[in-house]
């Protein structure tokens, strides 16, 4: 499920993972424990497709997401094995090729999600 969610942006897999770990409230709690007070998960897919530009529901910022990811990968919040697993998934993402990878030189590695 994790591979489908991360590599192929499989939203059904993502919903199942979130439910398995305790739901959106648990995800939000864990983000706060990591110091992320900006990211605001509220809904599951497919409801995420319906939004208001004025709403803060289901939003984050690049800075908040980057800080959280840095804490997980660089600051030892993940074991060596889990860090490698996450980075491999992000490096093998199939859904971001035309978005991020097209904006950087070919010799850059892009870990995307």
Domains counted in the coordinates: how many? 1
The radius of gyration over CA amounts to: 15 Å
Strand elements, count: 0
Helix and strand composition category: mainly alpha
| Number of continuous helical runs | 5
* Proportion of residues in extended strands: under 5%
| Shape, principal axes of CA atoms | globular
Q: What sequence of helices (H) and strands (E) makes up the elements? A: HHHHH
Largest sheet: none
Structure description:
This protein is mainly α. The chain has one domain (2-81). The chain is built from 5 helices and no strands. It has helices spanning 2-8, 11-20, 24-33, 62-73, 80-91. Helix 1 packs across helix 2. The longest helix has 12 residues, at 62-73. The radius of gyration is 15 Å and the shape is globular. GO terms for molecular function: beta-lactamase activity. One of its GO terms (biological process) is response to antibiotic. Keywords: Hydrolase. It comes from Staphylococcus aureus. Residues 1-113 form the Beta-lactamase class A catalytic domain.
List the helices and strands and how they pair.
Layout: H1 2-8, H2 11-20, H3 24-33, H4 62-73, H5 80-91
Helix pairs in contact: 1-2
What's the gist of this structure?
This protein has 113 residues and is mostly helical. It has helices at residues 2-8, 11-20, 24-33, 62-73, 80-91.
Which features would summarize this protein structure in a list?
113 residues; mainly alpha
């Amino acid at each position: 499920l994790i591979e489908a969610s991360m590599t192929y942006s499989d939203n059904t897999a993502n919903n199942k993972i979130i439910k398995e770990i305790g739901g959106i409230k648990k995800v939000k709690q864990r983000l706060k424990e990591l110091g992320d007070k900006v990211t605001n998960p509220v809904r599951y897919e497919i409801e995420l497709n319906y939004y208001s530009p004025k709403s803060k529901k289901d939003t984050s910022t690049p800075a908040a997401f980057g800080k959280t990811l840095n804490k997980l990968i660089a600051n030892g919040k993940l074991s060596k094995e889990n860090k490698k697993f996450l980075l491999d998934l992000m490096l093998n993402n199939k859904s971001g090729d035309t978005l991020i990878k097209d904006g950087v030189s070919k010799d850059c590695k892009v870990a995307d999600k």
